[in-house]
Design goal:
The complex is a heterodimer of chains A (about 260) and B (about 230). Chain A has about 260 residues and is of the alpha+beta class. Helix content of chain A is about 80%, strand content about 10%. Chain A contains five helices and four strands. In chain A, strands 2-1-3-4 form a four-stranded mixed sheet. The longest helix of chain A is centred in the first third of the chain and has 136 residues. Chain B is about 70% helix and about 5% strand. Chain B has a two-stranded antiparallel ribbon with strand order 1-2. Chain B contains seven helices and two strands; from the N terminus they run ββααααααα. Chain B has one domain. Chain B is mostly helical. Classes of the chains: A alpha+beta (about 260), B mainly alpha (about 230). Chains A and B meet through α1 of A and β2, α1, α2, α3 and α4 of B.
Chain lengths: ~260, ~230
C-alpha cells in the first residue's frame, strides 16, 4: 500500500504547522520589512521631492535676486556715469568760467594798468610840456614884455564893449573890496596909477584896486572882480594847451587800449 | 529498495510508526523554519540588507507576483498557503542532492496529504470569499445534473495533484537508483541535476495548480455574479 494514512495525517499536521511557522517567521516579517522599506523609500522620495521643489524655488529666488542685483547694478552704473558726466560738465564749465574770469580779470587789470600808465604818461607829458613852456616863457619875460603886457591889458580893458562893462561893473559893485589886479610880475608904481586911473575912468569910479603879485601866472596880468576876470596870463593858456594835449592823447591812446582789451 | 520512504521505519511506538517520511519532513521543516528565523531575526528596513534577506525577499515577491498572475487577485491571503506549498515541495526536492536523504515528496502519503490540504483549502477560500450558500451553488451549475461531475472533478484533480507529484519525485529517485546500478559514473549526476530541475518544476506546478483551483473557486463565482448582476 503506497498510502499510509497515519503518515498522511501526520503530514497534514506537519504541513499546517509549517504553514503557521512560515507565516509567522517568513512571510509576515519579510512583507512587513518590505512594506516598511517601501514606506521609508516613499517618504524619502517625498522628502527628496520636497527638497527638490524647495531647492528649485530657492534657485528661482536666487535667480530673481541676481537678476534684480544685476539690474540695480546696471542702473547704478548708469546713474554713476550720468552723475560723473554731469559733474564733469559742471567742473569743466566752472573751470572754463574761472578761466574766462581770470582772463577777463587779467585783461581788465592789463587794460587798467595800461590806462593808468597812459594816464600817467599823459599827465607827465602834459606837465613836462607845461613846465618847459612855463620855464621858457618865464625866461623870456622881461621889463619890456611886462610893460607891453600892461599895455595890452589896458587896451583890452578900455576896449570892452558896453555889455561887458555892465557885467564888470555889477560884479565890482557886488564885491567892492575884492577888486584886484593880479600879475606875474611886480607892476611898477607908474603903471599902477595908470591902471587905477583907467579903471576909474572906464569902469567904475572910486573903486579900491589892490595889486597882487602871483608868480604862478607865469606871465600876464588880469583884473579880478568877484567872479569876473579880465586879462590874460600864460598859465591859462598853458592850461588850455594842456587840456588840449590831454584830450589829444586820450583820443590817441584810449581806443588803442580798448581794442587790445577786447 | 523501497519505493516509498513510508516503508522505512525508524522508530515504532506501539501502533505509531515513525517512518522516514515524517522524520525527513521534520528535518525539512526545521531547516526552513530555523533558516527563516535566522534570516528574519534581524531584518533591515533600510535600503542596505543582507543577501539572505534579499533571497527571501526575492522568493516572497516572486511568489506574490505568480499568485497575482494566476489569480488576478491580490496575493495577500493566498500567499502563506501557496507559498508554503511551493517552498516545502521545492526544499524537499532540492535537498535530495544530500546523500542519504529521502525526499518526503517521494511518498504518496505526503503528496496525498498536500493534495488533501488543497482539496480542503479550495472550498474554504471559496466560502470565505463568497459565503457557504453561494459556494455550494456552483456544484449545481449550470444544471443540477452537473453535480456528480463537479464533485468527481474536485476529487479527481486532487488525486491527480497527489499522484503527479509523487510519480515525478519517485520516478526521479528510482531512475537515479536504477542508473546507478547500470551506468555508475557521471550519467547519474546528470540525471540528478535533471531531478533537481523537475523537482523545482513540480513544486511550481503543484503550487500554481493549487492556486488555479483556489482562484477558480473564488473568481469564477465573482465573474458569474457580476454577469447575473448585469442582467444576463
Amino acid at each position: 500500500m503506497l498510502i499510509d494514512w497515519f503518515t498522511v495525517f501526520a503530514q497534514i499536521i506537519n504541513f499546517l504547522v509549517l504553514l503557521f511557522l512560515l507565516k509567522r517567521f517568513l512571510y509576515g516579517r519579510i512583507i512587513d520589512a518590505m512594506d516598511k522599506r517601501e514606506e521609508k523609500i516613499a517618504a524619502r522620495l517625498c522628502v527628496a521631492d520636497e527638497k527638490i521643489a524647495e531647492a528649485e524655488s530657492e534657485a528661482e529666488n536666487y535667480r530673481m535676486k541676481q537678476a534684480e542685483l544685476e539690474e540695480r547694478r546696471a542702473h547704478m552704473l548708469a546713474r554713476a556715469g550720468e552723475e560723473a558726466e554731469a559733474l564733469k560738465r559742471e567742473l569743466t564749465g566752472r573751470a572754463r568760467e574761472e578761466t574766462a574770469k581770470l582772463k577777463e580779470d587779467w585783461q581788465e587789470s592789463l587794460a587798467r594798468e595800461k590806462r593808468s600808465f597812459l594816464d600817467d604818461l599823459r599827465r607827465k607829458t602834459a606837465k613836462e610840456v607845461f613846465s618847459i613852456a612855463g620855464k621858457a616863457l618865464r625866461d623870456l619875460s622881461n621889463q619890456e614884455l611886462e610893460e607891453h603886457m600892461v599895455e595890452v591889458f589896458l587896451d583890452r580893458l578900455c576896449g570892452l564893449d558896453s555889455r561887458m562893462l555892465k557885467k564888470l561893473r555889477e560884479s565890482m559893485q557886488k564885491s567892492r573890496e575884492e577888486i584886484a589886479v593880479v600879475s606875474a610880475f611886480e607892476v611898477p608904481a607908474g603903471k599902477r596909477q595908470r591902471i587905477t586911473r583907467d579903471i576909474h575912468e572906464h569902469v567904475l569910479k572910486d573903486v579900491e584896486v589892490s595889486y597882487i603879485t602871483d608868480p604862478d601866472l607865469l606871465s600876464g596880468i588880469e583884473l579880478r572882480a568877484g567872479e569876473y576876470i579880465v586879462g590874460w596870463n600864460l598859465r591859462d593858456y598853458l592850461r588850455g594847451m594842456e587840456r588840449e594835449i590831454e584830450g589829444l592823447l586820450k583820443e590817441k591812446t584810449v581806443p588803442e587800449g580798448e581794442e587790445k582789451s577786447e | 529498495m523501497e519505493i516509498s520512504p513510508d516503508n522505512i521505519i525508524i522508530r515504532q511506538f506501539g501502533t505509531v510508526k515513525l517512518n522516514a517520511t515524517i522524520v525527513y519532513t521534520w528535518i525539512v521543516m526545521a531547516v526552513m523554519v530555523v533558516g527563516s528565523w535566522l534570516i528574519t531575526r534581524r531584518l533591515s528596513t533600510e535600503t542596505g540588507f543582507s543577501r539572505w534577506q534579499n533571497l527571501l525577499e526575492v522568493l516572497v515577491t516572486g511568489i506574490q507576483s505568480q499568485i497575482r498572475a494566476v489569480s488576478h487577485q491580490e496575493a495577500g491571503q493566498y500567499l502563506p498557503f501557496a507559498g508554503t506549498l511551493f517552498l516545502f515541495i521545492a526544499v524537499s526536492n532540492l535537498l535530495s542532492i544530500v546523500p542519504g536523504y529521502q525526499a518526503p515528496t517521494g511518498s504518496l502519503s505526503t503528496t496525498a496529504a498536500l493534495a488533501i490540504c488543497v482539496f480542503i483549502a479550495v472550498p474554504l477560500f471559496g466560502i470565505s470569499e463568497k459565503g457557504l450558500a453561494r459556494y455550494l451553488k456552483h456544484y449545481v451549475r449550470p444544471t443540477p445534473l452537473m453535480l456528480p461531475f463537479n464533485i468527481l472533478g474536485e476529487l479527481s484533480r486532487t488525486v491527480a495533484l497527489a499522484v503527479r507529484l509523487f510519480g515525478n519525485v519517485m520516478s526521479a529517485t528510482m531512475i537515479a537508483a536504477i542508473l546507478l546500478s547500470v551506468v555508475p559514473l557521471f550519467f547519474p549526476i546528470v540525471l540528478q541535476v535533471l531531478g533537481l530541475l523537475t523537482g523545482l518544476i513540480q513544486a511550481y506546478i503543484f503550487a500554481v495548480l493549487a492556486m488555479v483551483y483556489i482562484a477558480s473557486a473564488t473568481r469564477a463565482y465573482k465573474e458569474r455574479e457580476e454577469k447575473s448582476e448585469k442582467g444576463e
